[in-house]
Amino acid sequence: MSNAGTYQCQITDKVPLRMHVHLTVKPRPPPKPAAVKIIGEPFVDQGEPIQLICNATGPRVPEKIDWFKDGTKLDAAAHGGMLIEEFMRVEHHALVSKLKIRNTDTKSSGTYICRSSDKKIDSLKVTVLVADTMNKKRETDSHVDVKNKDLLIGGDKEETEGAKDGSISAHPTLSLVLTLSMCTALYRILS
């Protein structure tokens, strides 16, 4: 702050040149506190990769980021389907680490933790979803009549239209299954 003020620049020649410049010195903003943040999807389909990004920031860029799953440190060299990349973003005072796990299964589900060398931690619970063959079969047996805005699940149109109480199924025991299937099918149509 003591360097603020008006400065003069002179060039001596046949015609002397002078220029006045006013310098304003602003205080440096306070450093951001050290922090760690994980970004990624909490739900992944079986066989699809888990991809997580850990962003560690602070007044000093951390030297390293370690990854853990359910408290156990991950080692990409010991796991063929795992890749860990790190790179620095100097302009943001950040160290970024990307974790990618290929060919996921239910054993890949768990709590993933990233920890910076200055001991800041964040975690994300990831669940690998497994769709059984029954669900896939139901999807192929579903019928949707968008023209009449009727949603028919399983069987022929005559079997499902005949309910006197306005429900889709004339069989009360099937109502819950049909309702859940309708929601799933309707979601797929609308999205």
TrEMBL record:
Among PROSITE patterns, the record links this protein to: IG_LIKE (PS50835)
Provide the Gene Ontology terms for cellular component.
neuron projection membrane
- Can you say what this protein is called? Protein cepu-1
Gene Ontology biological process: synapse organization
Lineage, top-rank taxon, reads Eukaryota
Domain Ig-like: from-to ranges: 33-127
Spell out the Pfam families in the cross-references.
Ig_3 (PF13927)
